[in-house]
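Format is sequence with structure; example below:
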Amino acid sequence: MEIKADVHSIAKLKDYFFMVPDYQREYVWKVDDQVEQFLVDIDNEFEEGQSEQKSYFIGSIIIVENKGRYDVIDGQQRLTTIVLTLCAFRDLLQPMELDAKQQSYFKTINEWLSDFDIETDETQIRLDLQYEESKDFLSNLILSKPYTDEQTTSIRRMQEAYETIKEHMQGYLNIGADNFTAFIRYFLSKIELVVIKSENLSSALKIFETINQRGAGLNAMDLVKNLIFSQAQERDFQKIKEKWKNIGANLAACGEDQNQLRFLRYFIMARYYNGIIREDEIYKWIISTEGKESIAYEANPLGFATELEKLSKRYSKLAKATMYQKDGGDYPAVTRIGFINKYKSRQHLVLLLALKVDCSKEMIEYLASQLESLFFYSSTLGIQAKNNERLFSDWAGKLREAASEHDLAQVVNDTILPYLKKLVGEFKQTFLNLRHYHYNPLYRQRYVLGQLENTLRRKSGFAELGLGLINSLQIEHVFPQTPRDGVISEEFDDQEDYESTLYMLGNVTLLEGTINQAINNFNDMNQDWFSQKQNEYDKSNVLTTALLNHEYSIGKNTQLNKFKDQYKYQFPKWSKAQVIARQKILLNLALETWLINGKRIDGSHE
């Protein structure tokens, strides 16, 4: 059986024309799972501002020659995502005024995606999906043709992946055209794959089976297991087998049985390694002199296995808590992290794993509450996840020694608090100009508005709203999204000016669906539309909404009325100035909501 394997950069894949045969599985990658991980992994390897970048290996593809083209037997999901990314690069470059270098990259990408074949007198695309569910979606995207109207699950996932990738890459472009070009260069020249060429389909399927069968292809997790057994006494073998079985069960319980290396990487960074370690460096470091001395697995392999078992259980519980998305969990602050930082996020586990093996549930929840605040400020400022990982790898070393909540509070004072204090000015300026969709998806928008509501409720002596109730509410725009007959208030210069105010955070509030439905028609800006809305807002159980009716109050000299007076939360009319004023109030509430060690990050006592 003849096999040829070569390492290629993405740019070098231009030497091939690929086909995914019709018997292969359709595109199944999800944007909030594999596509997001694809982007995060590459983000973590790309070093902004560095002229020399390290190569990054992202896997392999198995191909078989077929009449001058190559059938893709394995790796089609990854290859399709690469093509979608290149289409996103092209479509972001297309409307720009390009300099000579950018024009060269634009040309390179276009030549990668398709090429004119003189022999056939036709344009050939670089990746042709033959399975029926594709309906020529990818080929039309490559050739910049309109999307097909027909929707299949595969098309929907490809379209969602393309739009997500394009939005993600827009972030690099927003920093600057040179930064975007540098990322394109990195993607083309430094992302590498192993291309395995087989002589025929039978051989290719045998290679695929060998690579993917259970027990084959040892990774760092397998090697660590073997290492522990190699150091253990025979009398401990059964105990270690049981512990390894429990580790697998723990990771399977949180859906990470196919991604055990992430747990091992976070475990090592949290408890032993000082800095960021890549998955392909884990085992090499463990068996290094530094790794041996840090972990001491040679002297106590059973102890190391026990630590892995206990921390895999903590990892599993906290990963599930992050994805919980409702009330009643054991770690509510961790669940809230899932709302502000995405329910698939895992970065915070680096710090939560750093706490001592026998630390209390209260210590974990306490630290998670501080991290919830950190992620709110990071999300508001648009700080990329890889920047957090650098911070966390440094902070983890300090958290390892925290033996009590007092110690933990001191570490937070020495790490998270000074970091956020440096960002206070930027945060305030950003928040005052914020549009509510900055916190997409919708569950995150509701979370932010819901936590602001709960701060007001605490100040006013009311019971807080649960996550389930908050997530059932709708986003209401005070200035209507669709003014009747398109007529807007005279205070706005034009439609663009109106929409700029319409989507400000100060113009939105949470509202019950039944009430929202009732006010949908209060959009005639030639009439007293706001007072009509106020009469309905008054019926809401959401205080930040009910108070939009300036006549709303409960009793005399109550905490709620004191809040109205102190924060000047009174709106007899609604205008652009009122939106700006309310956004300032929400800023103050935000600083009262997301605290560090119980205090505002700006040092105010308001």
In short: Residues 428-593 form one domain. The longest helix spans residues 153-175. The first strand starts at residue 3 and ends at 9.
